[in-house]
């Protein structure tokens, strides 16, 4: 890996032209793109992502409609779906449907590591990488298991709690990223609360990159179009490109 990774998020269906945000993300330097599949009871999402999901669902968006939108999309970076197990468990072909739409990764935050076997097998069979999450309160033995079984990258949650914009990164987030990096050769990405380029730079001192979600969706909900969001992604990209890659601090 030659640089720090940038993974922006968009809620599928947040606007009729939502795939243009995906295109702008890719054009301005995203390494992967996380696509939120809206769910009516998003237990880990803070108010901004909840509002984005509610807005999409009010427009009649479904998993099928989002995947149909993605099927006609051509971007040169991997797409990672994020959703909840309730949507996955009721559709036996869920992972195969993702793969058919060009989605190559899946994050399901409400499935704990000791209950992941069936989903892991289904995702692997479909050629979809199952990305696992770790939190600052995760025990060392579970951290090791998550680091071993996650695919594509390990998602390090910066705080215990829901997603959302925050003023600063806690020391526990940086400590978690360093612990995980010692356990795996996979990239370790910090998410939850990466709201500004300065946060991304701070996170990159310990992690291999960042996931940026709520800050972007707040801008979209406030009316920002694809080009404006693309310019914001470019700012995050420039900030991360200024980080010297080497031994974490």
TrEMBL record:
- EC primary class: lyase
According to its UniProt record, which protein family does this protein belong to? Belongs to the TrpA family.
Give the E.C. number(s).
Answer: 4.2.1.20
Instruction: Please write the reaction equations for the catalytic activity of this protein.
Output: (1S,2R)-1-C-(indol-3-yl)glycerol 3-phosphate + L-serine = D-glyceraldehyde 3-phosphate + L-tryptophan + H2O
Q: Pfam families this protein is in?
A: Trp_syntA
Q: Which UniProt keywords apply?
A: Amino-acid biosynthesis, Aromatic amino acid biosynthesis, Lyase, Tryptophan biosynthesis
This protein's species is Micromonospora fiedleri
- Give the superkingdom in one word: Bacteria
The active site lies at: 34 (proton acceptor), 45 (proton acceptor)
Q: Identify the metabolic or biological route this protein is part of.
A: Amino-acid biosynthesis; L-tryptophan biosynthesis; L-tryptophan from chorismate: step 5/5
Protein name listed in UniProt: Tryptophan synthase alpha chain
Q: Tell me, how does this one assemble?
A: Tetramer of two alpha and two beta chains.
| Single GO molecular function | tryptophan synthase activity
InterPro entries cross-referenced by the UniProt entry: Aldolase_TIM, RibuloseP-bd_barrel, Trp_synthase_alpha_AS, Trp_synthase_suA
For this protein, the record's PROSITE patterns field holds: TRP_SYNTHASE_ALPHA
**General function of this protein:** The alpha subunit is responsible for the aldol cleavage of indoleglycerol phosphate to indole and glyceraldehyde 3-phosphate.
């Amino acid at each position: 890996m030659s640089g720090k990774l940038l993974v922006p998020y968009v809620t599928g269906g947040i606007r009729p032209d939502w795939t243009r945000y995906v295109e702008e993300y890719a054009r301005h330097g995203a390494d992967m793109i996380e696509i939120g599949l809206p769910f009516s009871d998003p237990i880990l999402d803070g108010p901004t992502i909840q509002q984005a999901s509610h807005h999409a669902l009010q427009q009649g968006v479904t998993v099928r409609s989002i995947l149909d939108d993605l099927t006609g999309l051509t971007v040169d970076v991997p797409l990672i779906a994020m959703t909840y197990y309730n949507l996955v468990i009721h559709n036996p072909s869920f992972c195969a449907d993702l793969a058919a739409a060009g989605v190559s990764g899946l994050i399901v935050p409400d499935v704990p590591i000791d209950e992941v076997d069936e989903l892991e097998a289904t995702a692997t069979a479909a050629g979809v990488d199952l990305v696992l999450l770790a939190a600052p309160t995760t025990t060392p033995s579970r951290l090791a298991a998550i680091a071993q079984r996650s695919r594509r990258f390990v998602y390090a949650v910066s705080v215990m709690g829901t997603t959302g914009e925050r003023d600063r990164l806690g020391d526990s987030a940086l400590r978690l990223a360093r612990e995980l990096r010692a356990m795996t050769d996979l990239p370790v990405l910090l998410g939850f609360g990466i709201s500004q380029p300065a946060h991304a730079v701070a996170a990159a001192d310990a992690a291999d990159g960042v996931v940026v979600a709520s800050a972007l969706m707040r801008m979209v909900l406030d009316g920002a179009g694809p080009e404006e969001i693309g310019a914001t992604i470019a700012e995050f990209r420039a900030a991360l490109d200024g980080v010297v890659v080497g031994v974490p601090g």
